[in-house]
Amino acid sequence: MKSSSEGYRPTQADHIRQSEICATCHTLLTQALGSDGKRIGRLPEQVPYQEWLHSDFKNTQSCQSCHMPVVKQPVPITRVFGVPREGVSRHVFVAANFFMLRIAQPYRDALDVAALPQELAAAASETTRFLESQAARIGVEGVRVEGGRLQADVVVENLGGHKLPTAYPRAEPGSTSSSAMPTADPCSSRAP
């Protein structure tokens, strides 16, 4: 394919399949300001790439293998004159922020959202399905009664390469309250 007006010839770029490309957008270091308004440091607000980089998944699973799954059959990459190809990834970015996908619809005009309402709803539903079925394995162990109270150990095994949830400022991984499940580190966590 070559543009008749610009002379540009698209070529394959292998870097698009490497996790490092994800870091360019998925790393947010926020400036911390003192009471006088002067910069006193930086804090890692959203760092899922760095979480992945320091996990065991770095050697077994790329960001793309989870968030851009490969289509199992040959598919055309263009609608016009598209020749079916093997190994094409779906650009669905599954497991993105379902909350933001849902909040975009009511404010679509103010946010200048281009996606159709049904596309936003489908993406939010697919993300929720993924998070419920493939993001973590949850188990209950050691159920017992102590001092007249029911006690149990909730075990959360994170099946992904970064914290769960990730890219949100939050309490330390493994923290829990009576109304929330514990968050998990890139490896299994136990929370009381």
What does this structure look like?
This protein is an alpha+beta fold and 192 residues long. The protein contains 6 helices and 7 strands; from the N terminus they run αββααββαααβββ. The strands form 3 sheets. A 3-stranded antiparallel β-sheet has the order 5-6-7, with helices on one face. Strands 1-2 form a two-stranded antiparallel ribbon. It has a two-stranded antiparallel sheet with strand order 3-4. Helix 4 runs antiparallel to helix 6 (117-133). Residues 171-192 have low confidence and may be disordered.
Which key features would you list for this structure?
6 helices, alpha+beta
| General form | extended
Report the count of strand segments: 7
- Note the beta-strand portion: 15-25%
Helix percent band: 10-25%
Strand pairing plus helix content: what structural class?
alpha+beta
Please, what is the average pLDDT?
81
Count of helical segments? 6
Q: How can the largest sheet be summarized?
A: 3 strands, antiparallel
Element order, helices and strands?
HEEHHEEHHHEEE
Query: What's the quaternary structure here?
Result: single chain
Lateral strand order in the biggest sheet:
5-6-7
In the predicted model, the low-confidence regions spanning at least 5 consecutive residues are: 171-192
Cα distance spanning the termini: 58 Å
**How large, in whole angstroms, is the Cα Rg?**
21 Å
